[in-house]
Design brief:
Elements lengths: L1 E4 L6 H14 L5 E6 L2 H12 L15 E4 L7 H7 L18 H10 L2 H4 L4 E5 L1 H4 L8 H9 L1 E5 L7 H16 L4 E5 L4 H15 L13 E4 L6 E4 L8 E8 L2 H13 L4 E4 L3 H14 L4 E5 L5 H15 L5 H4 L2 E5 L13 E5 L3 H8 L14 E5 L17 H6 L3 H14 L1 E4 L3 H9 L9 H24 L28 E10 L4 E4 L7 H4 L1 E5 L5 E3 L3 H13 L7 E9 L2 E8 L4 E7 L3 E5 L8
Parallel strand pairs: 1-6, 2-4, 2-5, 3-4, 5-6, 9-14, 10-12, 10-13, 11-12, 13-14, 16-20
Antiparallel strand pairs: 1-7, 7-8, 9-15, 16-17, 16-18, 19-21, 20-21, 21-22, 22-23
Helix pairs in contact: 8-9, 8-18, 16-17
Length: about 600
């Protein structure tokens, strides 16, 4: 196993693919599977692998197959073009012209099911597709068989919670025990987490490496039976970064700062920790009318609208964007821009987040070469500094963010450390910043009120980790079919989070009295009209006219599953947006709003619409 630690933009992915190619040449694998934390990051990696994967194999050999492995891959035009023109991803054995090549038939068969896609020469997908292989579900052994033939590359390994981290350690154990090799990548990996991955892999491999961790960074750690090595290396010339850090403690301070920078012709991004905060900031900056253009990007858009917004963001801020098109443009976004999109900004503001995410976000500042620019500055919107904070220090300013990032002591350490440092220097200070926050034995020390609060979060995480351990298969136990746990092949088993539901947006036509899918002109119109939302927040009952209810029933009857999978939201047009009156499970009358610029919102002021 190799662990590559290097700054964002330093070339970790390219190094991992090159290393995997050498391992393949030496007989340690037949191909590669790249596991990523999200579908968006998997899609972005798939685009990169398309251009190089055939070069991993000798000329004249059978053409290798490249597969995208996640639940929404059928929405990727790029992937569909790779496997041929079939609309239903069938195996294609009875193609009417009979002219399909063997490679196309093979690729289409592999694409027919997520579990068989792991048999491809080169696979790119979410790490969940591999994690299912260590759970007591149908076809888990097929998944393990598919992955063990290949070099397992896991990107962004720092991004997983304790539940997924425990499952990943089990996957590494199985992979090593079956003779597989792995490459782990991260820009911000704490030592304790690195040690857990090494232990998981070496337990499966059957040897116990002895490592005294060094502080050098960037670093490659090589775990193998004969000699375990830690290899410091120089970062790629030109990727060193020194980003000045400044703080704002009021929303007005952030607004004035952005106003000034936008009026000077710079483009800017404000990353907020929740969708609600992003929408609130969008409305505020829209009212101030200082940006030449404002975009809002988060996960609560219908899938078709979200993909269009993603393409717009890439066009506006990506590598091919022109300076005149970027001038004075503001993007307000959530964490969706942290990892998956190759975009950069002249100015950035971020809500206070854990140190590793702050470093990731800073990597979107001056990411591309664009001539002479001022020294990059990362502005952090944070609660006021306090040496003796209350346990509500963070949640008073960020009620929703306090739920997303529950370790408020780590947030306090992040703020204090960056205040004293005054900058983020990578790679020189990367290791110091990460370890100073995540090692409780290192200063700054967390105040007592926040320690007590974090203990509750730690107890919850330990329970989650224990649950993952009890669910994962034991490599030494073999198959125990009598346990009664073996169930369906379900990717939801790999993540422990608040329950979600799928909302299917529909558009009400008051002229023709017809309800249609929100994106009814798209291929895959059902998927393109969906949003995944919190079940707790959107546990509602629709309160519409009998005519609309009748249309909802009609629509359910023609959906593939009779409408059982989705909660239909009929959107009624009003002015320049749409709304749907609902009653929440707590009895409160509420309104669901949707428009193409802000996405979906739920709020309680239903009197605006006359009840």
């Amino acid at each position: 196993m190799f662990i590559i630690e290097e700054s964002t933009g330093g070339g970790k992915t390219e190094a991992a693919v090159t290393l995997a190619h050498r391992l393949m040449n030496d007989g340690y694998g037949e191909g590669i599977y790249v596991g990523l934390p999200t579908m968006a990051t998997a899609n972005a990696m798939y685009e990169r692998m398309k251009d190089c994967y055939q070069r991993l194999y000798c000329q004249g050999e059978n053409r290798p197959s490249l597969i995208l492995a996640h639940g929404s891959r059928h929405l990727s035009d790029s992937f569909l073009q790779t496997i041929g023109p079939s609309d239903d991803l069938s195996c294609g054995l009875d193609h009417p012209q009979g002219e399909e090549s063997g490679e196309a038939v093979c690729a289409r068969w592999l694409a027919d099911h997520k579990k068989s896609s792991l048999l491809a020469s080169i696979g790119v997908g979410t790490i969940d597709q591999g994690l299912i292989g260590v759970l007591p579900v149908k076809h888990q052994s097929l998944r393990l068989f598919g992955i063990v033939r290949n070099i397992l590359i896991v990107d962004e390994v720092h991004a997983y919670d304790r539940f997924m981290n425990r499952l990943l350690r089990s996957l590494l154990s199985f992979h090593a025990a079956l003779g597989g090799s792995a490459i782990l990548l991260s820009a911000t990996l704490p030592k304790n987490q690195k040690e857990e991955y090494i232990t998981g892999f070496s337990n499966g491999a059957g040897y116990a490496p002895s490592l005294d961790f060094v502080d050098e960074y960037p670093l490659i750690t090589h775990i193998h039976p004969h000699e375990c090595r830690q290899i410091p290396f120089l970062c790629r010339p030109g990727t060193e970064r020194d980003v000045k850090v400044t703080f704002f403690h009021t929303i007005d301070g952030v607004s004035e700062y952005l106003n000034k920078e936008l009026l000077s012709g710079k483009c800017a991004c404000w990353i907020r920790n929740t969708v609600s905060d992003a929408i609130s900031a969008y409305k505020m900056m829209k009212d101030r009318d200082v940006a030449s253009k404002i975009l809002l990007f988060h996960a609560r858009f219908a899938m078709g609208d979200r993909l269009e917004r993603e393409r717009e963001v890439l066009t506006q801020f990506g590598t091919q964007s022109l300076d005149e098109d970027r001038r004075g443009v503001l993007l307000i976004a959530t964490q969706v821009v942290e990892q998956s999109l190759d975009i950069d900004f002249d100015v950035m503001v971020t809500d206070l987040a854990p140190i590793d995410l702050v470093i990731q976000r800073a990597g979107r500042l001056h990411r591309h070469s664009r001539g002479m620019r001022d020294k990059p500055v990362l502005a952090i919107y944070s609660p006021s500094f306090d040496d003796n904070p209350k346990d509500s220090w963070y949640s008073e300013v960020f009620p929703g963010g306090g739920y997303v990032y529950p370790y408020h002591g780590l947030l306090w350490k992040t703020a204090e450390l960056l205040r004293s440092e005054g900058s983020i220097r990578t790679p020189d200070r990367s290791r110091f910043l990460i370890e100073s926050v995540y090692d409780p034995q290192l200063p700054p020390y967390i105040p007592s009120a926040l320690i007590e609060r974090d203990k509750e979060t730690e107890n919850k995480d330990r329970k989650a980790e224990g649950l993952a351990g009890s669910r994962a298969l034991n490599i030494s136990s073999g198959y125990e079919l009598g346990s009664g746990l073996w169930g369906e092949d379900d990717v939801d088993k790999t993540r422990l989070a608040d329950p979600t539901i799928q909302v299917l947006l529909c558009r009400w036509d008051p002229v023709n009295n017809v309800l249609s899918l929100w994106r009814d002109m798209d291929r895959n119109s059902i998927d393109m009209s969906r949003i995944t939302v919190s079940q707790r927040t959107y546990d509602v009952r629709i309160t519409v006219s009998p005519l609309i209810e009748s249309e909802m029933n009609r629509l359910c009857s023609i959906l593939p599953d009779g409408g059982k999978k989705d909660r239909i939201i009929p959107l009624i047009p009003i002015d320049d947006y749409y709304y749907c009156p609902v009653i929440h499970s707590n009895g409160q009358q509420m309104i669901i709003e949707y428009d193409l610029k802000k996405g979906m919102i739920i709020r309680s002021d239903s009197n605006v619409y006359g009840g």
